[in-house]
């Protein structure tokens, strides 16, 4: 018995020595430097601690928020420095644009813009082109200026039929009188018209067009819309538009643009839609290698990836393996997210509407066959993926909600894992149904600003145009709402998007606010913490809180203190991305 006790004492002694050694080794490890940023005010978007004046950051994450005095327990035990460069500014959570397409944005920024509305991009003032005459004048000038360039095809973005008139292959051939390939990219970015030289350059013949594209391709008119554009035309353009010579300068401009607008998180809401390897190469070259100050959340287009990669089972395994691997770089975020498409685009009036439909009687387009949509959505839903669905018209949104109801009936999951993207036109019945089924919404509030006037006259009519992006009916029912740009459907300026949701004002200055617009708090949440929640990233980003990544935007003024119309004018001083400072 005594021997056993002696043995236990020996083991206890050895165990205490081991613990002491471990403790000594932990204490001996040098602590990383803590950087404390001070500000006139820190708006955290954390309801448990709404405001502060100091935030401590170590290794890219926030370790404490409060006053300098309240941070002292951390600072007294570790090396630190106090950075006071923002002492007279406002620190706010890094802004989130939860629905973007960085590749698409870089391509657009590499093309010539002729748009129906004015744009300010990196100091360039792009005037509004409002009439067919002015559009053709600018197009002819741009083609003439490009005549001696070494680009194999001239690409212009922004054509819009309501303002610029009809566009056909014959019109391009006759009115431009050029042998150079020309692509006129519609304002929605979901359609294009090509001249004869462009069709020849793409080596695309009418006999190459399958019957499934009868509604989306009119070869004789050079018109490619929706699936016909993405699945036929874009695949033939990919090797050129995704090559470094064409796209890299556009990426440089996009990176400057996003960082200058205070954006620290975006998503690619259609990854893999063109060519997975070319897209990966672009992100490596233009985001990772350049160490940009924002992250891109990868959200594959499940339907198009399946088309290009052997069907559902093969593509699911391909994506599941890729998305479940943690990213090793801060610029890319993987995870279980996919996207589907319900109906067509808002800017091209290809969204699907319930009766009475469009004023001129056209029908819009479905983008995914219903049985395929249901089968693929169920597969990813059952595997625990967040599902994002592009849906614009009231019929398109109902179709997406029908899919949610069906997959939820088979496999019940917590609410808000199914997100309606854009939410272009809906009534209060759809708002209620969205809430009842537990969906969330990521909306483009700029639709109303840009389209509210013209769609009152063309397409929808006055009453329905007033229901474009009706967000208050969602918020009042507890539906999480985020605001996005879908750049260039709107500027990727989250404070501008918040202003649009707060004012519900059109280009002409008319207000379409019944029953109400969003409050300033609701709108700012929709570009910070609620946008993070929509992406499933609210554990890491969206507010200034201990444990989260150190993503901040530095503002000249407090967005809660300015008048609503001044929100979009607040000067952005710089950003902090995972602890790295980027000043404008």
TrEMBL record:
Stored CDD domains: YtcJ_like (cd01300)
InterPro entries: Amidohydro_3, Metal-dep_hydrolase_composite, Metal_Hydrolase, YtcJ-like
Domain Amidohydrolase: 89-581
GO MF, any single term: hydrolase activity, acting on carbon-nitrogen (but not peptide) bonds
Entries under SUPFAM superfamilies matching the protein: Composite domain of metallo-dependent hydrolases (SSF51338), Metallo-dependent hydrolases (SSF51556)
PANTHER family: IMIDAZOLONEPROPIONASE (PTHR22642), PROTEIN LONG AFTER FAR-RED 3 (PTHR22642:SF2)
Protein name: Amidohydrolase 3 domain-containing protein
Native source organism of the sequence: Sinobacterium caligoides
């Amino acid at each position: 018995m005594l021997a056993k006790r002696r043995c236990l004492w020996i083991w206890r002694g050895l165990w205490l020595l081991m613990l002491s050694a471990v403790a000594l080794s932990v204490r001996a490890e040098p602590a990383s430097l803590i950087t404390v940023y001070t500000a006139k005010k820190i708006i955290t978007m954390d309801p448990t601690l709404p405001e502060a004046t100091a935030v401590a950051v170590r290794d890219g994450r926030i370790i404490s928020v409060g006053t300098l005095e309240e941070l002292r327990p951390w600072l007294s035990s570790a090396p630190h420095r106090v950075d006071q460069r923002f002492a007279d500014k406002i620190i706010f959570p890094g802004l989130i644009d939860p629905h973007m397409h960085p590749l698409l944005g870089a391509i657009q920024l590499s093309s010539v813009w002729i748009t129906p509305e004015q744009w300010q991009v990196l100091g360039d003032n792009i005037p509004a082109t409002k009439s067919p005459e002015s559009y053709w004048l600018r197009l002819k000038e741009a083609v003439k200026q490009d005549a001696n360039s070494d680009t194999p095809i001239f690409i212009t973005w922004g054509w819009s039929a309501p303002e610029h008139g009809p566009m056909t292959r014959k019109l391009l051939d006759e009115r431009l009188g050029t042998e150079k390939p020309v692509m006129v990219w519609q304002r929605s970015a979901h359609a294009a018209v090509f001249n004869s030289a462009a069709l020849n350059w793409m080596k695309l013949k009418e006999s190459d067009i399958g019957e499934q594209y009868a509604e989306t391709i009119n070869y004789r008119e050079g018109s490619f819309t929706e699936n016909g554009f993405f699945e036929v035309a874009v695949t033939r353009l990919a090797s050129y538009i995704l090559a470094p010579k064409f796209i890299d300068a556009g990426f440089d401009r996009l990176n400057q643009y996003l960082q200058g607008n205070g954006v620290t998180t975006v998503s690619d809401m259609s990854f893999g839609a063109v060519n997975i390897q070319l897209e990966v190469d672009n992100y490596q070259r233009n985001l990772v290698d350049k160490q940009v100050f924002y992250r891109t959340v990868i959200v594959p287009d499940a339907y198009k990836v399946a088309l290009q990669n052997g069907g559902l089972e093969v593509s699911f395994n391909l994506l599941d393996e890729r998305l479940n691997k943690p990213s090793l770089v801060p610029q890319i975020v993987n995870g279980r997210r996919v996207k589907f498409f319900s109906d067509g685009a808002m800017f091209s009036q290809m969204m699907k509407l319930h009766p009475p439909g469009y004023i001129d009687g056209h029908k819009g387009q479905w983008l995914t066959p219903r049985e395929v949509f249901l089968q693929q959505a169920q597969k990813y839903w059952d595997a625990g993926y967040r599902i994002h669905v592009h849906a614009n018209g009231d019929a398109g949104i109902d179709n997406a909600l029908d899919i949610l109801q069906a997959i939820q009936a088979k496999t019940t999951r917590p609410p808000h894992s199914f997100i309606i993207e854009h939410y272009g036109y809906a009534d209060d019945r759809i708002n209620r149904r969205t809430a009842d089924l537990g969906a969330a919404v990521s909306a483009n509030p700029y639709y109303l600003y840009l389209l509210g006037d013209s769609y009152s006259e063309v397409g929808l009519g006055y009453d329905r145009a007033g229901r474009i992006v009706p967000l208050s009916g969602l918020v009042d029912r507890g539906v999480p709402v985020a605001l996005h740009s879908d750049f260039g459907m709107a500027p990727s300026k989250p404070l501008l998007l918040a202003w649009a949701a707060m004012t519900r004002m059109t280009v002409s200055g008319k207000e379409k606010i019944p029953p109400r617009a969003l409050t300033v708090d609701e709108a700012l949440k929709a570009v910070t913490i609620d946008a993070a929640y929509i992406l499933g990233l609210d554990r890491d980003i969206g507010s200034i809180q201990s444990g989260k990544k150190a993503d901040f935007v530095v503002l000249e003024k407090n967005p809660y203190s300015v008048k609503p119309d001044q929100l979009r004018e607040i000067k952005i001083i710089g950003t902090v991305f995972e602890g790295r400072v980027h000043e404008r």
